Amino acid sequence: MPSPSATSNPIENSRELERRLTQRQLTMMTIGGAIGVGLFLGSSVTIRLAGPGVILSYIFSAIIAVIVAYSIAEMAVIHPVPGSFGVYAQTYLNEWSGFAVRITYAFVQIIAIGAEVTAVAIYCSIWFPAVTQWVWVVGVSAALIVINAMRVGNFAEFEYWFAIIKVIAIVAFILVGLGIVFGLGPIHAVGFSNLTAHGGFLPHGMKGVGLAMSLTLTSYMGLEIIGVTAGEASHPGKTIPRAMRAVALRLVLFYVLSVTVMLAMTPWDKIGSGITGSPFVLAFATVGIPYAAGIMNLVVISAALSSANTNLYLTSRTLFSLSRDGYVLKALGWVGGNGVPYFALIASTSGMAAAIMLAIFAPGRAFLSLYGVAVAGMFFVWIVILLAHLGFRRSLGRARVALLPVRLRWSPCSQIVALIILAAIAMSTFLVEGLQYTVPGFAVFLLATTVVYRMLKRRNRNT
Asked: Which of 88, 171, 270, 438 is most buried per CB count within 10 Å?
């Protein structure tokens, strides 16, 4: 079996990343990275597309996301290296796919960082409408850079508690929402009539459910963190399987239950009318609970900060891996005394710069512009992961697969079904307002990536 390496072109006398991430930190980092803009702000777009039927969109998307996550976890247990699925693709598919998927993932995460800090500006404008968005974007970006410059163990501990706030808030939202739905205590029962009124459960039919999946699927973007962090996980053979099982169950429950409760509390056509704030905040404001909307707004701000913090970490480690494989500047593979790839971290802040420019020149379209660009890129990343996993399974053989501490069920049928659905959802973006150009735009990006790859290969042959 091939043995992937993330250090085929190491920098002389450079330090390596440190294995300091524990299982609890790994679990909460994954949850923190996955629960962010997609749930708290992006859900307003998906609700508009599918109405209450968006619940089905989240359930179907969760199935695909779990298949991808378990595919990564299997490979990460055997190969806990920096570069993760980029290295796996290079090993079990070809060099081009290993390069392209890492470049794409870094690009997507850079865009995601910009989307998250833009979301913070949107949330803050509810309290401070006179302050322009770019002021918030600049302040948040500076704080996140400082946090990411910490030793990875300290950074992870900070992110752990950041994510805990998010999880507690979602659980509290679900419990309070259920109290409102069922009328616990002095509260008048709302019931579930809002799920079937206002046009029915499927006001736009199953077509709306399918179109909404173009965004609900990317709401689970972050589960692949399990693989990216493998290079800094302590005892990866134990921590990765435990973290994977915990994360998959919690994410599905958090997304499906919270969206269901939110739609039961408030008519979907009132909270899916546009991107002017979190639908969770709007739901509490609509039912008239004192101060609840303000508290929830504070929570979604911390959620966006947590997700942006993790995405900045992911991008810096992806660029580090590309550098160590000789694809990008060697300086990006340099590691400081505290185990942080500083130059890769600086390069990862370009999404924040894009967010600042959009906040200044196009504040009304900033969020969807950033969030939409990342959609097609993540489809490509997940497709490559699934294809690499098919190659991994063939290479490993049935006997060794049976010994894995974490396994994807019903392989290879699971991956094949997921690949077909991903391709179909990618094509559906042509029918979603604001996303019509994401696939063609990404095709141009992938072509440019291929040209760069060929140039690098030619340069390496001549040196």
From this structure: 88
- The Cα 200–Cα 227 span in angstroms is 41
CA distance 94 to 388: 9
Rounded to whole angstroms, the Cα distance separating 15 from 12 reads 9
pTM over cut 0.90: no
DSSP 129: T
> 């060794």: which residue's tokens?
400
Q: Are 187 and 180 in contact (CB under 8 A)?
A: yes
Distance of CA 276 to the CA centre of its chain: 22
- What amino acid is encoded at 42 in this protein? G
pLDDT(460) > 80: no
Between CA 284 and CA 345 the distance in angstroms is 38
Q: What is the 3-state secondary structure (H, E, C) of 248-285?
A: HHHHHHHHHHHHHHHHHHCCHHHHCCCCCCCHHHHHHH
**Token pair 């006001």 is at which residue?**
203
Indicate the residue type of 69. Answer: A
The more confident residue out of 27 and 145 is: 145
Concatenating the DSSP letter of every residue in 77-107 gives: HH---TTHHHHHHHHHT-HHHHHHHHHHHHH
User: How far from 449 is each of 101, 124, 325, 364, 441, CA to CA, in Å?
Assistant: 10, 37, 16, 30, 12
Partners of 21 in beta bridges: 233
CB 306 within 8 A of CB 222: no
As a whole number, mean pLDDT of residues 59-84 equals 87
Instruction: Identify any residues that bridge with 233 across adjacent strands, giving them in sequence order.
Output: 21
Q: Is the pLDDT of residue 1 over 70?
A: no
Q: What burial class does residue 233 get, using C-beta atoms within 10 Å of its C-beta: 0-12 exposed, 13-18 middle, 19+ buried? A: buried
**Backbone φ, ψ for residue 233 (5° rounding):** -85, 135
Average pLDDT of span 305-315: 81
| Rounded Cα gap, residues 176 and 180, in angstroms | 6
Rg for the chain (alpha carbons), in Å? 21
